[in-house]
Amino acid sequence: LSKRLNLPYTNDEVGHLAQTFDMMIDKIDESIKKQKQFTNDASHELRTPIAVIQGQAESMLENNHDIEEYKRTLSIIFDEARHMGKLVSNLLLLARSDSNTDKLNMESLNFSELLEGIVEELKPVAKSNNVDLCLTKNELSYIYGDQTRLTQLFYNIIDNAIIYNLPGGHINVVVENNGYYIKTSIQDTGIGIPEEHINHIFERFYRVDKARSRQSGGNGLGLSICQWIATVHGGKIDVISKEGHGSTFIVWLPAKSEKDR
Ligand code: ADP
């Protein structure tokens, strides 16, 4: 850890300078600690799929197996490789967001159309999970934003609403526009989030139930990416949730006004 000045915080210029200096050092220490934790977590997450791939390939190379066994193993290897691929692209995106080097392609977008496309794409996924997904929107909404990133944001949140739902459950996506902000609520009747976890779910690699998340292809980076995307668009994400009853994720994004279209 970095050194402090070791000067008393007296009520004069030197005291104030010493206090400011120590506060800055605290912030730098905190940021170094976070970076170390991130590298640690990332390495750990990458080790799991690599170990599975190695183990499976080794066992197939050792003896002769029937074709069905080879197929089963190849399918496990394929899933793990896909998991790793998603993890690496998420890590790269977060690294670019940290260094402010992800170039956003900002343009005027028909927000209603964009959201409708995502909901249509996810409907079959919801259906195969026995979950009902519907979209309610009134007037057309426009936004100034990056289409790829905004698609990623809503895809992640609606996908989570499917994954963390229960068979026979519902998801309601509601869009409201007050002329200044577009408020999109993604309301699910799923498992909900225990109160003590709510404040942490946007942290990198944070998962309430690691096994459930991994089984459905998650890596705990989705929501931190969503929050970054909302922030760079001048918006934010709120969460209301009750364990055993469901969750509502509310995404606020600046609307494009009528005269700017
Ligand atoms: P993951 O890849 O694990 O889904 P996310 O960053 O998208 O990672 O979400 C972090 C965690 O927040 C999840 O592992 C899950 O525990 C919780 N979570 C996210 N969305 C929901 C939801 N709609 N209902 C219940 N829990 C959720």
UniProtKB/TrEMBL annotation:
Record organism: Thermoanaerobacterium thermosaccharolyticum (strain ATCC 7956 / DSM 571 / NCIMB 9385 / NCA 3814 / NCTC 13789 / WDCM 00135 / 2032) (Clostridium thermosaccharolyticum)
Cellular component, GO annotation: plasma membrane
Main subcellular location of this protein, as a coarse class: membrane
Residue ranges of every copy of the HAMP domain listed in the record: 1-33
UniProt KW keywords: ATP-binding, Cell membrane, Kinase, Membrane, Nucleotide-binding, Phosphoprotein, Transferase, Transmembrane, Transmembrane helix, Two-component regulatory system
Signal peptide: none
Name the UniProt record assigns to this protein: histidine kinase
One MF annotation (Gene Ontology) recorded for this entry: ATP binding
Histidine kinase domain segment(s): 41-257
Membrane topology classification: Multi-pass membrane protein
Keyword Phosphoprotein: yes
Portion of the full-length sequence here: 202 to 462 of 462
Source organism superkingdom: Bacteria
Catalytic reactions on record: ATP + protein L-histidine = ADP + protein N-phospho-L-histidine
Subcellular location: Cell membrane
Enzyme nomenclature, EC number: 2.7.13.3
